[in-house]
Amino acid sequence: MPRDTAVSERRFRFLVAGYAVSSYGTFLNMVALNLFVYETTGRALAMGLFMAVRLASGFVAGLVVGGLLARFSAKSIMLWANVAQGGVMLLLILAPESLVTGALMTVSVVIGACGTLFMVALRSSIPEMVGEDRRAWANSLSITGRSLAMVAGFASAGVVVSLVGYTAAFLLDMATFVICAVTVALLPIAGGKGAGTGRPGEAGKPGTAEKPGTAEKSENGGKGGPRWRPVAFLALAAAPGLGLMVALRGVDAFGSSSHNAALPIYSTSLDASNPAVFVSAFWCVWALGNIGAQQVIQRYTQRTGKTVGALGFGYGTVVMSAAFIAAFAGFPLAVTAVIALVAGAADGLTEVAYTSHLQTLPATLRGHAFGLSATFENLGFGVGMILVAAALDRFSPLSVVGWSHGAAIVVAVVFLLRVTALRRAGTTAPTERAGGAEQAGLRKEQAVEGRPDRGDRDGAEVSRG
To answer: Which own/partner contact pairs does 200-205 have at CB distance under 8 Å and 24+ positions apart?
Structure first.
């Protein structure tokens, strides 16, 4: 391994460690803040409003983050996103009782927006940090860190709150964001602020940086083209089928809202006296499957040099959605554990495939595409939570999860058909062009050498191939 590659990978591991620590804080505060909101207001509706504001903030951040990455470096966005989250947690800790409700809404806005800003800045700058050929490895490593943090955060939240109280939990949460901010500050991180190129496949290469706004101008076709088009949608048009891929991600988020909302209800039906046991066990097994998939993907990419690809994303979505539906079908606990393992593995596969695919875009469009993707995901999850919560009052968890994830399966099948058609067209067209060129050349040879059968025969053979 070249020395520069080893150094960049060591730095990225250090960054992932900081990211995992802050992710632990994020998942810890998802539980602690919801409990605190309910205890402070005494209303379940307040918890729903808190989550809605958080998702709406992430939605808006997804729309603007591409423009921010065109003006500021990815490092500065990641740094200040963590500083802001740590600062707002301190604000909540110091807020007097009369201002707690306002502080909670501020926390909701900042956490939702900054979480999206950090995630998009990180994912869009990975090709510059580790190189194009190490994207899948880097994505897999960051997802592994987040999965471990999710399990630790969810598992420890109840214990932390019950043992040391909300103030100590919020201080711990603030400390995780500070640690991540320090990690980012200490590392030379590329990405953003015009880093990249306007031509696919050259992101991260030296000497290909463009001035901010160059891509927008070139994509608009100069003076004769349209005067303005949103850059985020230009990013989706940069690769065939990418728009459908992002749409599938949004529908998948809609499906995710169903199993997140239905799990506590289903768990209560299994054991009303202690419903948290099944939920915790399910997510722990899910995380094991996710982490296991990341290890397999890392070894696969190291051995073959290939990435999972768009087809892996489509097939993984089908398997993941089918597994989540099966998890609510009432199978024995041992079978359900296997299903949760499969769901986690498929979820890990889809995330690596999806992230790696978007990272193949030119750097000038990549941030916009990731931002629009985050917007679709927040929209799908937010709308899903509203519809699913209403549906669970009338229908069983299996029914609700079935039609929610069923919609994801339908869109995934359409996506797979589209990708397969594009691949067939892509392999047929170059072959036909090669056959035509060879046939023309051999016909010329036929006129010189006087062998009238040679050109037609060879040309036909090439065309059939």
So the answer is: 200/238, 200/239, 200/360, 200/361, 200/362, 201/132, 201/360, 202/362, 203/127, 203/128, 203/132, 203/359, 203/360, 203/361, 203/362, 203/363, 203/366, 204/127, 204/128, 204/131, 204/132, 204/363
pTM (predicted TM-score): 0.73
149: which residues sit within 8 A by CB, 6+ positions away? 20, 21, 23, 24, 26, 27
Distances (CA, A) of 85 to 46, 109, 351, 363: 21, 10, 25, 27
Amino acid occupying residue 442: L
188 and 267 in a single domain? The answer is: no
Give the relative orientation of helices 333-358 and 309-327 as an angle to the nearest 10 degrees: 150
Query: Exposed/middle/buried for 74, CB within 10 Å: 0-12, 13-18, 19+?
Result: buried
Q: How many domains does the chain have?
A: 2
Q: Which residues of 114-127 are buried (b: 16+ CB within 10 A; e: fewer)?
A: bbbbbbbbbbbbbb
Three-state DSSP at 192 gives strand
- Paired with 201 in beta bridges are none
The predicted-structure confidence for 369-392, as pLDDT tens digits, reads as follows 888 888 899 899 888 888 888 888
Q: Is 270's pLDDT higher than 90?
A: no
d(CA 361, CA 363): 6
Buried b (16+ CB within 10 A) or exposed e, 192-205: bbbbbbbeeeebbb
97 and 223 share a domain?
yes
One domain for residues 294 and 321: yes
